[in-house]
Amino acid sequence: MAQTFLDSTELVLNMGPQHPSTHGVLRVILKLDGEKVTGTECVVGYLHRGVEKIAENRTYAQFAPYVDRMDYVASVSNGLGYCLAVEKLLNVEAPPRAQVVRVILTELNRIASHLIWLGTHALDLGAITPLFYVMREREDILNIYEKYCGARLTTHAFRIGGLQYDLYDGFEEEVKRFCDIIGPRVDEYEELLTGNRIWIARLTNVGVLNAEDCKAYGVTGPLLRAAGVKWDLRKAQPYSGYQHYDFEIPTRANGDSYDRYIVRVQEMRQAVRIVRQALDRIEPGPIMAKVAKVIKPPVGEAYVSIEAPKGELGYFVVSDGSTQPYRVRVRPPSFINLQAVDRMARGSLIADVCAIIGTIDIVLGEVDR
Amino acid sequence: MADPQNAEAKPKPAAAPPAAPKAPASMAATPWEDELTRRLAEQYPDQITEFSTYLGQSFLVAKPAAVVSIVEFLKLEADFDYLADLTAVDYPKRSERFDLVYILYSFARNERIRIKTRIADGEKIESVVGVHLTANWLEREVYDMFGIEFANHPDLKRILMPDGWEGHPLRKDYGILQMDNRWVKENLGIESGQ
Predict the structure, then answer these.
(1) What does DSSP assign to residue A74?
(2) pLDDT in tens, A235-277
(3) Where are the domains of chain B?
(4) Which residues of A touch B133 (CB under 8 A)?
(5) What ipTM was assigned to the predicted interfaces of this complex?
(6) pLDDT at residue A298 tops 60
(7) Contact A327 B84 (CB under 8 A)
(8) What residue of B is the nearest CA neighbor of A90?
(9) Which residues, other chains included, contact A258 with Cβ-Cβ below 8 Å and sequence gap of 6+?
């Protein structure tokens, strides 16, 4: 029988770059067999601003605000990673008070980042309500940032060697109040979602990535922990005094999208636990280490990474002894985790692609830099 | 930018005394020696030229031809099963112009090491995608930003810059305001993006 167009089983469908569930400008080319995805290719770079090139043309201090523009929903973590990397090259350490404040602000940022993820991920899958709730709670965090340093989103909260600003009056009370309300609020989200039949059906066994795949693809963060690997840089290679805090690393076994949801929700609760302990640890003292006005690290290189909300965020900084970095390489968790989308989406249904992109928790500013 | 292509045309400074590096100081690294370096030195006696530690971070310098084999050895024999990052650094004055840096981590040992290798402009290096799948996008990014080609890479093409773009932005001779004016004109219909 002659072949007709009906015999063709393959369809190539373009998704994005302008698509609400790609969380920015991500283009995914899908190869489909009916409703089944047989292959994907991500096209990235629409937001490329050449951050690493800019770094080579700015002084160490001038470059610090730029890193906030990569993962802009977790800008405090970005700043912490960069400051720690330059401090490593300078061989200085932030004073204890600064470290405690850094931990508080970074953990609040982790909550804010996970809240945004939760809201948008639920929205992608048709649950509109959580988005309004999470925005309400995130507002409290942003208000604390605004009072602390004047900015809400791209905060530039830290300086190389410590902090520029000391805490404002009433900081502790406000953070404490936030810690008191966020727990019950997370319970509310869980009431909406955790046992929700639609939520479970849309996420269970969707986008599975086991521990072996995670390691092969370099996938870190909640995705790795949802696959059962108890690995968190805050425990494995503590920085900023995380070794003094008592907290757990939530893990799950299946490595599917539902497990990632549970892991992130648990991480929010653990972050509150850390913030509460940090509040008790605030002691009077200096907030800046002794750092020269003109930062000139000796010739050398260092790789420093932190546990950002999305995974391992690393900075590889090379100094040639001048006032400008010779090279700054950012190891972006979103970019590297996104690579695994093909593995996760192959064989799934086209409707699950939105869930899979959402569950990775990407920020295109960080993917493209 | 007057002539974005002039970089390639510039005559090399006749490799003036290569023995006297211009940099006033070099990295104050100290030797790195433990059970792992002994095994590696035994396995790759002529291929690894340096074992060092700087600021408590260990790295080794290897010849480009041996890198894939060393990465594989470390993965299979020493549990370095996670390639955290792969990147490059450009030193245009050096005859072997690029440093390629492989950052490896071992979950079992909770240890991080770096493998560095030097390659010249235009020289190809074997891809490590066969050992670590994550190297796929990382090598594409290095190719995109530095123009270093990886042999046997499954899909070596640009990743962050547009496909038809000319030039590799993270090379030191690529100006910060420089762009591919031909691409900008053809695709955006404007004279310049500046």
Answers:
(1) G
(2) 899 998 899 999 999 999 888 999 999 999 999 999 999 999 9
(3) 28-159, 161-194
(4) 216-217, 339
(5) 0.85
(6) yes
(7) no
(8) B55
(9) A199, A200, A203, A204, A206
